[in-house]
User: Fold this.
Amino acid sequence: MSKIDRLDIKQLRTFQALIQEKNASRAASHIGITQQAVSEHLKKLRDVFDDRLFLRKTDGFIPTPFAEELSIEVEQLLGDFKKLLSPKVFDPKTVSGTFVIAATDYAQQVVLPQFIATLRKQSPNLKLIVRDFEIDKLHELMESGKVNLAIAFPDYIPDSYPVIKLFEEHHVCVTSPNSMLIDSKPSLKDIAAYPSIIASPSRPNFKGSIDDWFKQFGLKRNVVVSAPCFSIVPMYLDTTDSIAFLPSRAIKGLNLIEIPLDQSPDSFDVIAAWHPRYNENALQKWVVSMLNVESN
Assistant:
């Protein structure tokens, strides 16, 4: 057995008390143990350090020269232990390091611009990495600590992850100002038959979340273009006579025309999620709290 395996913090606290009190009875009272326990700890310390450490005198103990030198290091070591066990005070203004956010294309457009501005203002030494949301790799990335926070839709997040709802969103049907639909009042059947562009960030195919909604009315969409992200769809609409269903907050300020519908798709939540291992992490809790403030 190595020397470090034979040493514990109780022995070091006893040593420190003996240095301070120079008396076994007072040392025992100081740290709340029996005088016999003090003697046992001292015996083990003498064995570990191969030094008598304290010599008896009429009214107590006197430390050896080695013990006096050792006391400086023990004092520092016990101080470090206290710091380790003390509650950590989190100050966003001084915190440093890197925080990684995985966000959908939609979240990068709608949620992150103002949120990043807030984080930069409140925590200027914190570096931020924003990466594309990879639904197939999300759990692996978050479990390994390569992603700290995910901003997406509920269907993209594992059920076991803690989440907060940021806000509620809904899709609107839009087209370009040059579309032939502008001067008509299309029915839902007409909308389903019209050439449609979808954003499919997770997988490149012709299926979107709106398909199930159309199925309720016995209709199937005429999807002709599948784009990898929401942000590019308005450009495609501008050059083709087509329509798209886009989140309402993603079209603000864009040159698009909303097509009124008799029926509207169901609303959906936009959420933030993280791995359970970070539940008590001070930086994680602060970032989430800031995100919650921004979304309300």
Observations:
- The two ends are 59 Å apart (CA to CA).
- Residues 97-168+270-295 form a domain with the D-Maltodextrin-Binding Protein; domain 2 fold (CATH 3.40.190.10).
